[in-house]
Amino acid sequence: MAESLPPEMLSYILSFLPLSDQKEASLVNQAWYYAAQSALQETDVRYIIPVAYASLTSIKSLSRRQVSCVSLTSMDSSSDTSNVLQSISYFLGPHLHSLSLRGGTLTEASFIELITSCPRLQVLDLSGCNSLFMSGMLLDQPETVQQVREALANLQELNLANLRCLADASFNRLSGCAPRLERLSLAHCHITFDPHHNLSAQRASSAILSFHNILYFLKERASHLVALDLRGTNLPPTALQALGQVVGLHLQELTLRGCRDISTEAVAALCHQQQGLTSLDLSGCSELADGALLAVSQGLRGLRHLRMEKLQRLTDAGFTALHWLRELRSLDVAECCLVSGRELAKALGFPKGPPPHLTSLRLAYCSLLKKDKGPKLSRNFGDMGFFLPQLPPEPLAPSQETPKQLTPSLLMLRALQELDLTACSKLTDTSLAQVLKFPSLKRLSLSLLLELTDTGLVAVARGCPSLEHLALSHCSRLSDRGWVQAANFWKRLQHLNLSSCNQLTEQTLVTIGKACRQLTVLDVSMCQGISMAAVRHFQAQLPHVTCVQSRFVGGLT
Fold first, then answer.
1. Which CATH number fits domain 1-43: 2.60.120.330, 1.20.1250.20, 3.30.1440.10, 1.20.1280.50?
2. Once rounded to an integer, what is the mean pLDDT over residues 238-242?
3. CATH T-level topology, domain 434-549
4. Is 462 helix (H, G, I), strand (E, B) or coil?
5. pTM (predicted TM-score)
6. Which are the contacts of 245, defined by CB distance < 8 A and separation ≥ 6?
7. Residues with Cβ < 8 Å from 292, sequence gap 6 or more?
8. pLDDT tens figures, 72-88
């Protein structure tokens, strides 16, 4: 009966199967093979293709799947590269929506030929392609510009990061070919800032990329542009204020990571001018203090993603207004060494409870130390508000209800799916057992928790049974006995990092192999109790584990 179905219907049916079953179905007969190939078309899957002679056969076969996302690697100026690019242009170009040439060395002629064969392109990554811009003559011929403009008519995202030779003229010619551009990255580009420059003067320098030229571009594209990445550009406060004042510009995403000169006052002005921001990255902006977070919390009520890593001046006082961010999905305050966690916990719990959609929280490398006056309280994360005070050693029976908490704690974040507690060194088994009870949590990092023992591991396994990614590197007190009890709770585990867990032996590999049948990536590097022979046996027994990191196992150098 299946043989009589139209190919389109058969392909539709197969698309509901898991990827592994689709591959099996492709072996039935020729009709099923082509139906499975069509079903395997996935717009969010990126294929990484080395630009080498050996890739020619693969490129031809990928054309049958109408692959839409491709990253090309190992490009140079050789004849082999030219031949492979021609093959990609012919077989894959008509279907491509996303193309990455990151770090490639290619000629302008090869670039033009490739781009003009991709009429449906929406995303283009030219980051690190310095050879294209070194001469400053890219797209200087009118007939070439017209061809590229037709090919990039639907381009929405352009990545020009790490281009040391990018200048005003080449930037203007390339961006002029993409009238529908919505997302632009100029990360780590060398941008010159001249506060005395007159915008009415000639703006297209052939030698430098100037901020006044970028500002002119923003004014022209204000109605379309929604995302801008200026990380690592040393943007001064005056430039940030000028950016925020562009008439008609309504950014949704802005990345300023590593712009160390940005001031708290400039961020406050930005929050007033660009109130539609939903994603903001201020990580590594070392001049920022509590006022910046207060301004963000009060001015950007629709913010969904906030990153403020490595802000050494940020303290608890900055979190007092965080409760205004009701739409917050992810919060990253890793390596903010002056944050104790108490005000953060209060902000997440007051006055209406935590943000209902908060799914990701990163507190990595936050020591969160606060010495209490009470002589019996230890200096651990449990005293800071996020984790409750330590409980008696007897665990609660499964039938008992968890008592209502009188103080804010991590338990309030019921929607949490990702939690990073790397190197929060004062965490104990007791505090983890009391708070890490998230049935839907998918990603968890407890790496570098030197006090974590088998007791804490089992408690985490019971409280977080849906984990898919788990990092436990350098947790040196974990042993085989803990994994015997914990592994059966983690049926969905796919990525596991156990590097430098020196008490583990090959028995843990046996336990994991039996219990975690969905595991695909395992890292046991520098585990002195695990031998290379045990790793090979594990791989032979579990061929679906595609990557096993085993550097220096057994103490080998």
1. 1.20.1280.50
2. 94
3. 3.80.10
4. helix
5. 0.84
6. 273
7. 264, 267, 268, 282, 285, 308, 311, 314, 318
8. 998 887 888 888 899 99
